[in-house]
Write a structure and sequence with these properties.
The complex is a heterodimer of chains A (164) and B (252). Chain A has 164 residues and is α/β, with parallel strands linked by helices. In chain A, 25% of the residues lie in helices and 22% in strands. In chain A, the strands form 2 sheets. Chain A has a 4-stranded mixed beta sheet with strand order 4-7-6-5. Chain A has a 3-stranded mixed beta sheet with strand order 1-2-3, with helices on one face. By secondary structure, chain B is mainly alpha-helical. Classes of the chains: A alpha/beta (164), B mainly alpha (252).
Chain lengths: 164, 252
């Protein structure tokens, strides 16, 4: 059966899928969903991993299949591509704001971030109180894409979505 | 040896090294010296296993015999594994793990920097992706080299001993054979002479800052390219492959 939906409609539908580990942003805002193609009666959805070993990819693949099945598209292929390599620069400003509100310090532009991680800049803002007096506890946080920080003013620990 | 055979062999070498060191790191899960380090090592392990998945999946395609990444990871024996000997060495204490990881990370950092320019599109794509992650790994292990090396007398002694023990496995990182020659000619992989120079410079700098002495031992261990491994790999594979081999057709 030919697909009667437009690509925009599919994108809109898939924008309802949250990232499994950061449920406040969806897979489009995060830059994981790259492309939707129709090949005959098959819907091909192209996604890219944030990190090569990201365990969320399998969950996202299943979520996509379930979502499309809901509107009657049964033949779905989810393709994983590595090029171009995912970068945090693809996260929209709106999504960065959502991350901050959720308690995760959003990534800076990758050029600024290098200095932050090398400890040469101290301009990482605490997402909870806004203080710039923060320090890194560990480069690796609760998931591969995050580092662990703490605020020296409000004393709360927080995650920082590190640049890639 | 054909180009296809050389490529398959090279992909196994890269993929197996990542898989085995990833597995070794995963053994720390729940045993890290502090919670942050436990999390860090497992994050790094995950990157390596992810990188191995991409490489072995591609190796299977290049081989063209219908083997996928799981078949290659779980259904090959010790003598068919091509990982570098350093990657299979036991975790030991934390100094052993950090020393092994630092020496390997530095190698991988410079090797993948070159592989980013590979004329093989898939290899280049994997290298671009992984290089970003390795940069974080190397930064992390370099910091621990400084902390342990230039730390207390006890931590210094342990790290220096670890480095001395592992040193004989480092020359193998830069060995080249027919496989390399074929692929270098096609612009698919780099000549390791360049990688070696960059590695030595990096290692010397970090060692100097960490007050460590570069071992003078000239004894070299090699054999991984022919599937000749140290006694440790068999035990690792037995644990890693047991479930898959017991239930080969099981689906999650």
């Amino acid at each position: 059966m030919p697909i009667t939906f437009s690509k925009d409609e599919i994108f809109k539908l898939l924008s309802e899928i949250p990232d499994p580990e950061i449920p406040v942003i969806n897979i489009i805002e995060l830059g994981i969903l790259r492309e939707v193609k129709f090949i005959d009666d098959e819907c091909v959805v192209v996604i890219t991993p944030t990190y090569t070993g990201c365990p969320a990819m399998k969950v996202i693949e299943d979520d996509i299949k379930i979502k499309l099945k809901e509107i009657g598209i049964e033949k779905v292929k989810v393709e994983l591509v590595l090029t171009p390599a995912w970068t945090t620069d693809w996260i929209s400003d709106e999504a960065k704001e959502k991350l901050r509100a959720y308690g995760i310090a959003p990534p800076d532009h990758s050029s600024v971030d290098k200095k932050v991680l090398l400890g040469k800049a101290r301009d990482l803002k605490c997402p909870l109180c806004g203080s710039k007096r923060t320090e890194m506890i560990s480069q690796f946080g609760s998931t591969a894409c995050k580092a662990l920080y703490r605020c020296l003013d409000c004393k709360e620990p927080f995650d920082y979505f590190k640049c890639l | 040896m054909t180009l296809q055979e050389a490529k398959f062999e090279y992909l196994l070498r890269l993929g197996d090294s990542s898989l085995i060191i990833g597995h070794r790191l995963s053994e720390w899960c729940g045993h890290g010296p502090i919670l942050e380090e436990d999390i860090a090592l497992i994050n790094i392990a995950l990157d390596f296993v992810g990188n191995a998945t991409s490489l072995l999946e591609y190796a299977g395609k290049v081989e063209g015999k219908g083997r996928n990444e799981d078949d290659l990871a779980f259904m090959r024996g010790e003598r068919e594994y091509r990982n570098l000997l350093i990657t299979e060495q036991p975790n030991g204490d934390y100094a052993n793990t950090i020393a092994r990881q630092f020496l390997f990370d530095a190698h991988m950092f410079f090797l993948y920097e070159e592989l980013k320019n590979s004329k093989d599109e898939t290899i280049a794509a994997i290298a671009v992706k992984s290089h970003k992650e390795i940069t974080y790994h190397l930064r992390h292990t370099s910091q621990w080299m400084l902390r342990l090396g230039d730390g207390t007398a006890e931590s210094h002694t342990r790290l220096q001993n670890a480095v001395n023990e592992l040193w004989m496995f480092t020359s193998e990182l830069f060995d080249m054979d027919e496989v390399d020659a074929i692929l270098i000619k096609e612009g698919i992989v780099p000549d390791l002479t360049k990688v070696k120079a960059a590695w030595e410079k990096q290692v010397n700098e970090v060692f100097a800052e960490a007050t460590l002495t570069v071992p003078e031992t000239k004894f070299k261990q090699k054999g991984s390219k022919e599937g000749k491994h140290s006694e440790h790999l068999g035990f690792l594979l037995a644990e890693m492959q047991y479930v898959h081999r017991s239930f080969p057709d099981a689906k999650w």
